[in-house]
């Protein structure tokens, strides 16, 4: 088994008024292309929400999203800058208008390995064969649309790479 460096991260699942979600396309050596919400590592002294808001601003230029309830937590493996990593992600719901990222984010996207961005409508998300992080993200979004935010974050556990 590969030794993994632990890392804590937080993300915002941004949903527009029509129910579309904003995701970013990444490529990882172990799992390949996948779509994930904006976010990243928690720095010393930051809360999960502070990290998620900071990372989202760095990756999108948006500083006005409205952060809501915690949606889920999960653990997964990936390679970060050549280092095998086991990351624990906390994902929070957020609201914002549908728009393109703002400002020159070329360097930020290069550093974070963001290849593309997209607003996914509920129908496109449900029908897609793309890989999403966390796995089951389309079902989680459908559940939130149907039932609202969970009373407690959903614990998705550890997802091994297949």
SSE inventory with pairings:
Elements: E1 5-15, E2 21-28, E3 32-36, E4 39-41, H1 48-60, E5 66-80, E6 83-95, H2 106-112, E7 114-120, H3 122-127, H4 137-147, E8 154-159
Parallel strand pairs: 1-6, 5-8
Antiparallel strand pairs: 1-4, 2-3, 2-7, 5-6
Plain-language structure description:
Helix content is 23%, strand content 42%. The model has no long low-confidence stretch (mean pLDDT 94). The radius of gyration is 15 Å and the shape is globular. With 162 residues, it is of the alpha/beta class. The strands form 2 sheets. It has a 5-stranded mixed β-sheet with strand order 4-1-6-5-8, covered by helices on one side. Strands 3-2-7 form a 3-stranded antiparallel β-sheet. The chain has a single domain, classed as Nucleoside Triphosphate Pyrophosphohydrolase, CATH 3.90.79. The chain has 4 helices and 8 strands, in the order ββββαββαβααβ. It has helices spanning 48-60, 106-112, 122-127, 137-147, and strands at residues 5-15, 21-28, 32-36, 39-41, 66-80, 83-95, 114-120, 154-159. Strand 2 and strand 3 (32-36) form a beta hairpin.
